[in-house]
Structures are given as C-alpha cells and as structure tokens.
Amino acid sequence: MSLIELRDESAGYNGTTILSGLSLKIDPGERIALVGESGAGKTTLLRLIHEKCAADAALMPQNLGLVQALTVFHNVYMGRLDRYSLARNIRNLVWPARNDVDDVRKVLSRLRLEDKIFTGVGELSGGQYQRTALGRALFNPGRIMIADEPVSAVDEHQAREILAAMDSEKETVVLAMHDRALAIEFADRLIGIRGGRVVMDTPSDGMTPEDLDELYRIDPE
Amino acid sequence: MTARPAPSPLARTTSGFLLIALLCLIFADIAVTTVDPWGEFAKLLQGLIAPDFYSTDSLALSMGYTLSFALVGVALGNVMGFLLALLFFSRIVRVGCAFVRAIHELFWALIFLQMFGLSPLTGILAIAIPYSGIIAKVYAEILEEGDRSPLQSLPPGTGRTSTFMFVRLPDAWAHFRTYSMYRLECGLRSSAVLGFIGLPTLGFHLETAFKEGHYSEVSALLILFYLVIASMRIWMKKPLLPVYLIGALAILPWGVTFSTSNIVRFLTQDIVPHPIRAGGENMMANLGDWAGMLLTHQIWPGTIATVQLTMIALIATGFLTLVFFPLISPLLLGRVSRSTGHVFLVVARSTPEYLLAFFLLHLWGPSMLPAIVALSLHNGAIIGHLIGRFTETIQLRVDAAGGLNRYFYEIVPRVYRPLLALLFYRWEVIMRETAILGMLGIATLGFYIDSAFADLRFDRALFLILVTALLNIGVDAISRTVRARLRLQTTLEHR
Questions:
Q1: Is the pTM above the cut of 0.95?
Q2: How far apart are CA A99 and CA A92, in angstroms?
Q3: Chain B interface residues (partner A, CB cutoff 8 A)
Q4: Closest in B397, B401, B402 to A61, CB measured
Q5: What is the DSSP annotation of A20-43?
Q6: ipTM above 0.85?
C-alpha cells in the first residue's frame, strides 16, 4: 500500500496546464528529490503531492511563508497551531509559556538557531531565515516532509546539516532541489521533470550529476 | 537559557497608549441617562426599515444643495490647494496651511455665518478653506514622492514650467484624481453636516426629522445620501465636471444678501478681545483678567475633555478596526459574508461622525459615550476598509492555519504596522472631530465655542478656536514624531 498515489493527474494555474498525464507512487520511508530546470513544474508537482497528504504533511514552500512581525519562536510554534487549543495559541502569542518555549528550543538547537529564539525573523540573515522555516516544518508533527528548494540560501555545510535534520526527523521526504550533486547524495530516488512531464524516475544509486544533463538540455527548436 | 528580550518599541507604544486611554476612561463621564433608550431605538429601527421617500418635498432639493456645496467647495479647495502645493517650499505657506486645516469646517462655517449670513458663500468657503490646507499638504507630498529620474535626461536649458508639466505633473496627476474623489466624498459628508448650523443641506432636514421622531423620513434621507456616495464613481466623470459645477452654482440660493458694513464690523471690532476694544487705562489688566477667566473656566476644562475623549476614541477606533477589517478580508471570510461586511462598512464610514453622535446622544442622553461610539465606529470603518483591502495582497502558505488561529498568527501580525500607521495618521482627524462634537453638548472645546457664538461673544469664540487649532497642530506634531520613531508609513492610497 503506497503512501501517495497520483494517477494520470494534471495541474495548472488560471487555465494553463503545467503538469499533464502524471502518474506517481510514493511509499512510506522514501527520500525523493525532484530535479529539473526552473519552470519545469517541480513546485506544481509538490503542490499536487501536498494536496494528497495535507493532513500528515509538513510543508516548506519556496517563499517560506514566515510572518515578518513575529519572532523565531512564534514562527516555529505555528507548525502546531492546528494541534493546540485557541486559548493556548493566543496565550503563546502574547506571553509564551515555558514548556512550549522549551519544545521549540529543542527544534532550534538542532538547527543552531537557539540563541535567536526571541529575535524577530525580519532581523535574520538569509540562512537563518530559511532554517526558521525548516524549524516550523520540523515542529509540525506531520510525518511527510514536503520542501521546495529548502537549502537554496545556505552554504554546502549547512545544507548537509539541514538535510540530515529532515532525514532523521521525518519518515518520508519529498523535496525539489536544483543542486544535482546534493540531490543525488541525499535522495534514494530521483524524479526528473521536463516540460510538465515526468521523464525520469530512478534510484539514485550510482548516478552522477552528468547523468542528469539530459533534463537541462536546451530544446533545439 | 536565553533571556526574554525587552518588548519591542511597537509593543511599548501600544501599551503606553492603552494605559493612557484606560486612565482617561476611568475619569470619563459615561452613562445612558435616557429613560427608555431601547424603546426609542426600536422605534428608530422600525423607521429605518420603512423609509418614506414622499414624506417631504424638500428631499430632492436638500440633496441637490448638499451636492452643490460639496462640488463647488471641493473644486475651489482643489484649485487653491494645488496652487499652494506649488509654494509648499515656503515656510509661511506650510504653517498657514497647517493652521487653516487645524480648524474644522463647522467652526469655519460658524465664523462665515457671522459675516455672510446664510448666503451660499458661507458653506462654500467653510469647505474650500480647510480643504485647501489639507489638499496642499497631500499634493505637495505626492509631488515630492514622484519619480525624479527623468529629470536627468531632459535637455539642459529646459524651462521650469516645461519641466514641471512634462516630468513631475504627469506622474502625480493620477494620484491627484484619486485623492480628489476621496475629498469629494469627505466634502459630501461635510456639506451634509453644515445643515446643522442652518444651511439648507441634508443635515438641516435630518435634525428636524429626528427631533420630531419622523424616523421614516430620516431613513429616506440617509438612504439617498448613501446611494449618492456609493454611486460616486459612476456619476463623477471628468467631462461632466463643468456641467455639474455650473449646475451647482445655478441652484444655490444666492438671493440672501449680506451687508459689507457687517463684515467690516465683525473683522475689525467683534473679534477683537473685549478689553482691547473698550480701551481705557486699565486695558492691560482687564485683558489679563479676560484671558485668565477664559483659561480657567473654558480653555482648561475644554482641553482636558477634548484630550480625554480623543484618547479614548483613538484606542476604541483601533479595537474596532481589528474587529471590522476581517469583515471584508477574503483570507478570513467567504464571499457572501464579505458582501454584507462591505455594506456595513460603507454605511459606517459614509455616515458623518457628527450625525452618528447626534443620533446616539438623542437615544442615550448626554455623556461621552455617544461621542466615543460615533468616533470609533466611523473611523474604525474607514481604517478597517483600508486594512481589509490590504489583506488581499497577503500570500499565505498553502498549509497556513484557519479560523481564529489564522487571524491571530498570520494576519494580525502582518497588518499591525500599517494599522498603527493609519490610526496615528487619523489621530489629528479624531481630535478635530472631538472638538466639534462639543457643539452637541459634550463639554469639549466646541461646547464653549458654540456657547460663545450663541452669546454673540465673538472675541471669545475666535480665541477658543485659535486654542483648538493650536491643540490640533500639537497633536499632529506628536503623531508625526511617533510615526517617525516607529518607522510607520502610510502609502499614497491610504491618505
């Protein structure tokens, strides 16, 4: 029994089709990287996958969706808004409770953001900003991690840390990445997208970045 | 263990203002003193849902007058304001504009009433003069913020007028037009309220109908007024403007005559402080007594009440804005609920606060309560509308929380800064209105001004108006400091 199953699906925005004739199965425990040039449809495919498993998913969208006016604590805490009572949420908005602060701090220490817990996210660097969004996704108890370019704003060392955190915290991980080497290193399955279609779906074992060149070839038209 | 940081400047300012408002509220006179407020309210509601458009033959005519005063007054204010905006580099012009706009239309009307009687000139100037001060400031800011980069690519030696016409004006023009439409809406409200001091506009008939309990007539007058305002974008077309202006000038009742000697006497004698007019050897001592008496018996208590009411109304406006903006926000409500919300906000912001306060005072009896509710309803609806529209630009994550969690975590933190910016921007407006509501019997400065006019003590009235203006200028300065310190900005559309 697979976790997510797409059968001949299409998707698009405002009447234009971006993905078509798409079939895909994802099993629990898989580490999947979507690869392909920008505009190929990776974000749309992630959205489609998210729709199928929204109740059990933690999402890290490309624009990260952090609330500028709030602190790191609040933004991470938002990963569980739907799990906690409204009274608790409002209380934490105004005056964070100790046990909730401790819970959030655990996640942040893993991301080396502990000292920024009460900093407004507007004052963070690009990398810290991205790690805050990851913190929210990790704090979300959903078992499926869906992330769109989660390491685009950090250096390679931090990127490995972030990927390792996802790897150990989440049961299933689906992410879109433009760094081919990292994608091969992290994922156990690569899905290549080109022109709104899945053109490659293969285990990553033994792949080299050059094997993916086909996906980025410029059409000779 | 990281320590909790000190509260942000935004939070500190908010709690400071909350504290001040609470203190003001403790000492405020708030009560419902009428015997049967709900019974009267029920009668009012019955009347409101059964409008009678034939109860008075003057319905159409009073609407015509209301439109005419607004059109001519705003047009004149626009022309003068535009010319003044070009001279805004001059300190004298800036101070002069700040001064004329610090005096409310109704106070201007009371002054002109003494000079021109009920001639249309009174209503036109009462709108045109303060509006020109406001428009000059806004237009000057618009010109200031325009894109200056094309200036560099002009051929050297291009004349100043050509430069202005080709580079600076075209950019600003669209903003001028949008702002003029907003001013016309304000002008319609001002014009309607001018009826309360005797000009033949809507307020005149509303006051009579309301006092006599003819609520069906009140309803008809109000509905007509809302329809005219709501349909403004349909009927207000540029090519039709000359037709409207000529029509407006034609229907205004110019028959009323006024004597030049009256005007001269008012300006050279009536408004001069009484001790100076009387002269004599004790003039200076008498003048001191005169000013001292005004200060202790009128200016001091009037200022306290005005500031107190302003602070309560300011915070109440903030609270109501937080309640009102979700009514039209697509992120929080569905299409059907939103359209009801739109209607409610249009009605609340189209009803002049003076009118609202008048109704509520009639229902609840004299206290500060009607004024607080009227000011916060009207201003909360204005800011709520702008913030509700602002939320349309917010992009939420697909998995963002819903319901109240969304409101508190995703929306309020994002709109809080613009909300405060707009609230502080309207602080001065609220104070100007607070002073005016004194004319309805609440003991703010307007109460003493109105009494002075009624007693024909014009020297006192003018002096009190001067004090009120200075108070407004002071609040405006404080508001600007607060906004600058918190780095709160209002964008062009929000003015």
A1: no
A2: 10
A3: 2, 4-5, 8, 395-405, 408-410, 413-414, 416-417
A4: B397
A5: EEEEEEE-TT-EEEEE--TTSSHH
A6: no
